[in-house]
Amino acid sequence: MNLPLEGAGEIGRSLNILFDCDLTEYVAERPGPLFYLVRTAEDDDGIGIGVLRCIKPWTRWLLIKGFAAGKEVPDLPIERAIATIRDYLGLPDLQPEVTGVDPWTMNSLYATKCQNRRVFCIGDAVHRHVPLNGLGSNTAVQDAYNLSWKLAFVLKGLAEPHLLDTYTEERMPVGKEVVEHATGALALYPALLEAIGIPAASSSNELASMWAEINAPSEAGKTRRAQIRSAVENMVYEFQTRGLELN
Ligand SMILES: Cc1cc2nc3c(=O)[nH]c(=O)nc-3n(C[C@H](O)[C@H](O)[C@H](O)COP(=O)(O)OP(=O)(O)OC[C@H]3O[C@@H](n4cnc5c(N)ncnc54)[C@H](O)[C@@H]3O)c2cc1C
C-alpha cells in the first residue's frame, strides 16, 4: 500500500502461548484478567516477566513471554511450550493443553496517511503499538465506524467524495496518540521492574531475598517500598486514559 509510516518498528518481541487448563484453585480467590508473572533465573532467555491473560475464566489462558528487542524468539515445540507454562506459573506438575504458539513483534508505528487512492486502511494496518492500554481493537472499530458512514454517504450521492479526505484527517491524530501513549506506558515498566528487583536478581533465591528486604521493617525496606509506591503511582499514565479510550 506504500502508506507513509512514522515511529519505530521491532521495539521488542514476544511469544504467545495459548492453552487450556483449569486454574480455578489458583485464581478464584483473586480474580483478574491479567496476572504478571516473574521469572528470574540464569537459564531464562526472556526479560524476567511474563503476562498470563485470562481468555475464558478460569480454563483458557494466554501466556505472553517477553523478549528483549533484537533477541531471536525461539521456535517452541509443544513440549517446550508446556515446560515454559509450568516454569512461569511455578507449577511443575501442571497439565496444560497447548493450542497455539505464536511469536509477535512489538511496534510503535502509525501511518500519516490512511488512504492510497481508492483503498482505505483501518486498524493495525495504520497504527501498530504494544498492547499496553489495550486500545488496538476499539481503535480499529472506531476507524471502521468513521470510514463506513462516510463511504455510505458518498456512495449514495449524499456527500461529495472529498468527505473521505476527513477519514485521514480525523483518524491519523488518534492513531498517533494511541501509539505514542502505549509506547510511553511501556517506558514506565523498567522503573517498576527495577523497584521490585527483577533486573538485578540473577536467581529466584536472590529475588526472594530482595523481596524479603522490601517487606523488612528497616530503613532499606522503607526506601524500597517508597520506590515501588512511586513507580506504581506513575502507572496511572497507562491505566487512566478515558479520553484516549473513547478516541
Ligand atoms: C498480545 C496482544 C494483546 C492485545 N490486547 C488487546 C486488548 O486487550 N485490547 C485491544 O483492544 N487490543 C488488543 N490487542 C491489539 C488487537 O489485537 C489489534 O489491534 C487488532 O486485532 C487489530 O485488528 P485488525 O483487524 O486491524 O488486524 P488483525 O486482527 O491483525 O486482522 C488482520 C487479519 O488479516 C489477515 N491477513 C493478513 N494478511 C492477509 C492477506 N494477505 N490475505 C488475507 N488475509 C490476510 C490476518 O490473518 C488477520 O486475520 C492486542 C494485541 C496483542 C498482540
Structure explained in plain terms:
With 247 residues, this protein is an alpha+beta fold. The protein folds into 3 domains: 9-105, D-Amino Acid Oxidase, Chain A, domain 2 (2-Layer Sandwich); 112-187, FAD/NAD(P)-binding domain (3-Layer(bba) Sandwich), CATH 3.50.50.60; 189-238, no CATH class. 41% of the residues lie in helices and 23% in strands. The protein contains 9 helices and 8 strands. The protein has helices at 24-27, 78-89, 136-155, 165-186, 189-195, 204-215, 219-234, 236-239, 242-245; strands at 5-20, 34-38, 49-56, 60-67, 97-111, 115-116, 119-120, 127-128. Helix 3 (136-155) runs antiparallel to helix 4 (165-186), helix 5 packs antiparallel against helix 7 and helix 6 (204-215) packs across helix 7 (219-234). The longest helix has 22 residues, at 165-186. The radius of gyration is 22 Å and the shape is elongated. The model has no long low-confidence stretch (mean pLDDT 92). Flavin-adenine dinucleotide is lined by residues 16, 64, 104, 123-125, 131, 134-138, 140.
What is the typical, i.e. mean, pLDDT?
92
* CATH superfamily label of the largest domain: D-Amino Acid Oxidase, subunit A, domain 2
Distance between the termini: 25 Å
Count up the helices: 9
Walk across the major sheet and give the strand order: 2-3-4-1-5-8
CATH class bucket of the largest domain: Alpha Beta
> Into which percentage range does the β-strand content fall?
15-25%
Give every kind of bound small molecule, once each: flavin-adenine dinucleotide
* CATH A-level architecture of the largest domain: 2-Layer Sandwich
- Per DSSP E runs of 2 or more residues, the count of β-strands stands at 8
Structural shape: elongated
**Major sheet size, sense and barrel closure:** 6 strands, antiparallel
User: Helices and strands, in N-to-C order?
Assistant: EHEEEHEEEEHHHHHHH
In CATH terms, what is the fold-level topology of the largest domain?
A: D-Amino Acid Oxidase, Chain A, domain 2
Structural class: alpha+beta
- Poorly predicted regions are none
Radius of gyration using CA atoms only: 22 Å
- Measured as a percent range, the helix fraction is 40-55%
Our count of domains comes out at 3
